[in-house]
Design a protein that fits this description.
Helix 1 packs across helix 14, helix 7 packs across helix 12 and helix 10 crosses helix 13. The longest helix has 15 residues. The chain is an alpha/beta fold. It has two domains: 180 residues, 3-Layer(aba) Sandwich (Rossmann fold); 172 residues, 3-Layer(aba) Sandwich (Rossmann fold).
């Protein structure tokens, strides 16, 4: 029998494996690569919900942890023991929430790549000096390769964290929409009497769904409309209370966490992104790929990926600006076909799944 090489073992260290941007990208890649790699998933909160989106052919296992609170060095010894026990071919740590793994792998026991996708509410508007110094020491001084998913993060990594330029690699997110969903979307009709505004986001402070509900209330005061919020998280009770207080609760659907959010995304007439911080949001790219016009805040690379013809739909990240932009975009409904066509071209030319997959495969293979 021909020799079948063992798949490379990749140890992925996340702060959580609940579905978010970085987890959604990992799921896309793992499903595309199938059994090519063995994935060991460590989550600092021992939550592995995103695993239900992994297809049966993916070789993966959750790795429960005993995590101590107390800063970037609290778990260094325990995590180093995990690394030495697992002996992965490659360690990948994701975002500040998993920076302790960089400390655990110093001095280097296994090859390591750190991945930065964006920030929590703590760093939504400014970089915290202590975190910048920690990244500089654990990543820059240690010579770790760092992958960033936006031009904005590339700037921050090299100019604020002062990582050497040759250590920072830009790999933009990419998306691919199943053909069945594109066909369903093509058959969808915009309800001229009632517009459906929607978003896909974790219900966390930095996503600022509060801003979206306030803006929706302004829309609802002028016309019939409904809002669909796909995603779960700790902000849900407060957001439900806000919708009730503004008198729009009956028109706001909190769909909760969905393993397949695109199944609801294709129902939207207009996609809204109201975040205080983003980098290269996958949900926005998926909306554009599905042929849905987008209204979004000017954060991260959002304005860069928004087509030129739709720049009027980009708002400064304040409540007043977002509300005005949402109302203005609805008033420009006749321009939506242009926005849609340009958005589909933008995704196809610059943010296709195939291009992203090729670059990540080279990293997973140790290039």
């Amino acid at each position: 029998m021909p020799y079948a090489p063992q798949p490379r073992t990749l140890l992925h260290a996340f702060s959580t494996f609940t579905l978010g941007g970085q987890q959604a990208r990992f799921v896309q890649l793992a499903n595309a690569f199938g059994p090519r790699y063995r994935h060991v998933i460590a989550a600092m909160d021992n939550c592995f919900d995103a695993g239900e989106r992994l297809e049966p052919q993916v070789n993966w296992q959750p790795l429960p942890l005993q995590v101590k609170k107390g800063g970037a060095l609290a778990n260094r010894s325990a995590f180093r023991q995990v690394i030495q026990a697992q002996k992965p071919d490659l360690l990948l740590s994701y975002n500040w929430g998993a920076i302790e793994w960089a400390a655990a792998n110093w001095p280097q026991a296994v090859p390591h790549i750190h991945v930065e996708d964006g920030f929590s509410a703590a760093e939504a508007t400014r970089q915290l000096p202590r975190r910048a110094w920690t990244r500089r020491a654990l990543l820059g001084w240690a010579g770790k390769p760092v992958v960033v998913i936006s031009h904005n993060l590339q700037r921050i990594a090299t100019q604020v964290w002062r990582l050497p330029t040759n250590q920072v690699k830009f790999i933009p997110n990419g998306v691919a929409i199943p053909e069945s969903y594109l066909q369903k979307r093509a058959l969808a009709q915009v309800d001229q009497a009632q517009i459906t505004i929607g978003t896909v986001a974790g219900l966390r402070p930095e996503k600022n769904i509060t801003r979206l509900i306030k803006a929706f209330a302004a829309v609802r005061a002028q016309q019939s409309a409904r809002l669909v919020v796909v995603g779960g998280g700790p902000e849900l009770p407060a957001l439900q209370a806000l919708a009730a207080r503004l008198g729009v609760a009956e028109d706001v659907e909190f769909a909760g966490y969905l393993a397949d959010p695109i199944s609801r995304l294709i129902e939207f007439d207009l996609f809204a992104l109201s975040s205080d911080t983003e980098q290269l949001p996958i949900a926005m790219l998926e909306a554009m790929a599905c042929g849905i016009p987008v209204v979004a805040t000017r954060v991260g690379d959002v304005a860069h990926i928004m087509p030129n013809v739709a720049q009027s739909a980009v708002a400064e990240p304040t409540d007043a600006a977002f509300t005005a932009t949402l109302l203005g975009s609805i008033a420009q409904r006749s321009a939506w076909p242009q926005w849609v066509a340009a958005g589909e071209r933008m995704v196809a030319e610059h943010y296709a799944m195939g291009h992203m997959q090729t670059q990540w495969q080279r990293l997973f293979d140790g290039a």
